[in-house]
Amino acid sequence: MKITEEEVRHVATLSKLSFSDTETAAFATTLSKIVDMVELLNEVDTEGVAITTTMADRKTVMREDIAEQGTERQLLFKNVPEQEDNYIKVPAILDDGGDA
Question: At residue 12, what are phi and psi to the nearest 5 degrees?
Fold first, then answer.
């Protein structure tokens, strides 16, 4: 399955990323190769093979739930460029980053 450069640009736009034409072409080629490799798995005969949910015996390790003193807010906010009402103020990610 071929991944087109237009598809790469579309996903990059949705992710708010920008790539040069060279990078876009490289990503399209690389992603196409990855999809082709995954599609090869459809050719493997798995008839009679039991479903595998995990490859390792793992046990849930539980630790004792102990309440601990949290970090002071002033120390947490020490390097925060903008804050408002005890929240960290960040740029909007919707509507092209404008104020919402």
Answer: -65, -40
